[in-house]
Write a structure and sequence with these properties.
- The protein is of the alpha/beta class.
- The protein has 2 domains: about 140 residues, Rossmann fold (3-Layer(aba) Sandwich); about 80 residues, Orthogonal Bundle (DNA polymerase, domain 1), CATH 1.10.150.
- About 50% of the residues lie in helices and about 10% in strands.
- It has a 6-stranded parallel beta sheet, sandwiched between helices.
- Helix 1 crosses helix 4 and helix 2 crosses helix 3.
Length: about 230
């Protein structure tokens, strides 16, 4: 059956997770951050993902805002920037991350072709609502789904089942799009059509299931959805 629904991961796929550190580094008084922000952003994201995986394995769930704050605390300490005011500023900026430039046009093109569009994210509902509003893409989305509805982070299969349960679709009707190779792999295992947005030109993860399509940005998604 043709693809009727395109589901996107949020952080790193629609929203640029480096934007908070980059924007803070441009502000007055942040000369030290300006020197090291790429490393801080990388550490922050890596720890954020590691903490979601570890909590899922341990069965010790918390919401994504808490995970994001704990990962930031680690990254700031590792960079020698243990600054309470900076912590609050970076967390505030994380609620208003920049969308990648092609996001609005991609979503609009999908809707014009009759496709439903949704987000499936580790993000907590309040964080996702803030990011979607800041990016101005709410009108292009039919649903914003959070793992908080099942109380476990990706790649647990219960997360991907949310799409079928909430949107009333079968796995083979869904094109799932993520910038995380492991996420696309888990979605492929679940039965979705998958596209990995490999902006960093990284190697494919050595996992049992691999993404069916590898792209460098989201602009090719509307055409791909028509071919499936």
């Amino acid at each position: 059956m043709p693809v009727s629904t395109c589901v996107f991961d949020a952080y790193g796929t629609l929203f640029d997770v480096t934007a908070a550190a980059r924007r803070a580094a441009r502000e007055p008084g942040q000369e030290r951050l300006a020197e090291i922000w790429p490393r801080l952003a990388e550490d922050w994201r890596r720890k954020q993902l590691e903490y979601t995986w570890l909590r899922a394995i341990m069965g010790d769930h918390t919401d994504f805002r808490n995970v994001t704050r704990q990962a930031l605390d680690w990254a700031l300490e590792a960079s020698g920037l243990d600054d309470a005011a900076l912590t609050l500023r970076l967390m505030a900026l994380y609620d208003a991350l920049d969308a990648f430039p092609e996001v609005p046009a991609t979503l609009a093109a999908l809707r014009a072709r009759g496709k439903s569009c949704a987000i499936l994210s580790n993000g907590s509902p309040d964080m996702l609502a803030s990011a979607v509003a800041s990016a101005g893409i709410h009108a292009h989305l039919d649903a914003v789904l959070s793992v908080e509805d099942v109380g476990v982070f990706k790649p647990d299969p219960r997360v991907y089942q949310l799409v079928c349960d909430r949107l009333g679709v079968r796995p083979d009707q869904v094109l799932f799009v993520s910038s995380n190779g492991w996420d696309a792999s888990a979605a492929a295992r679940f039965g979705f059509h998958t596209a990995w947005v490999n902006r960093a030109h990284a190697p494919v993860d050595r996992l049992p299931h691999i993404p069916a399509h590898v792209l460098t940005d989201l602009s090719q998604i509307p055409d791909l959805s028509e071919r499936l």
